[in-house]
Design goal:
Helix content is 27%, strand content 0%. By secondary structure, it is an all-alpha fold. It has a domain of 27 residues. α3 crosses α4. The relative contact order is 0.05.
Length: 154
């Protein structure tokens, strides 16, 4: 049953929080559960409100905090990469190719280099499986893409 209405002092008030970096929430805020989120752009009128009501019915578990990565872990991950990372300050690996290559304007090859004809659009009804298989059938497709296409084809 609802309370008497208006402000009612709590029986056991929380201790005051410290300032700045020492501050901690005393209301059991976002650390206690995941916040509800309003989803805009739903297809039907009122779907966003319905989603909020659904979320309020069953509180979700708290989102785990990400653990920082140590420099040793970052170095180990860098060593496991199949290709070395090219530094931003490295000289170009394609000195004779203009920066506009692949764009619809400027010097260099246009979008036809990507296998896209002018005015061609991708069919929205095409499934991801069909898209991957079509890309893998291209002669320049990499072995990873071809392996993914064959795994999807099973």
């Amino acid at each position: 049953m609802a309370g008497k209405g208006g402000y009612q002092a709590p029986a056991r008030p929380a201790v005051a929080s410290g300032p700045g970096a020492l501050s901690q929430r005393t209301d059991g805020g976002p650390a206690s559960k995941q916040a509800m989120r309003y989803v805009s752009g739903m297809p039907n009128y009122g779907d966003g409100t319905d989603m909020m009501q659904i979320q309020s019915g069953a509180p979700m578990a708290a989102t785990p905090s990400p653990q920082p990565t140590s420099p040793a872990q970052m170095a180990q991950a860098a060593q496991q990469q199949s290709q070395p990372v090219t530094p931003l300050t490295a000289p170009t690996q394609r000195p004779n190719e203009p920066v506009t290559a692949g764009a619809a304007s400027g010097p260099g090859v246009g979008p036809e280099a990507l296998g896209i004809q002018p005015g061609q659009t991708i069919q929205p009804a095409q499934s991801a499986k069909q898209t991957v298989q079509a890309l893998a059938s291209h002669p320049d497709a990499g072995p990873e893409l071809q392996a993914l296409a064959s795994a999807l084809g099973k």
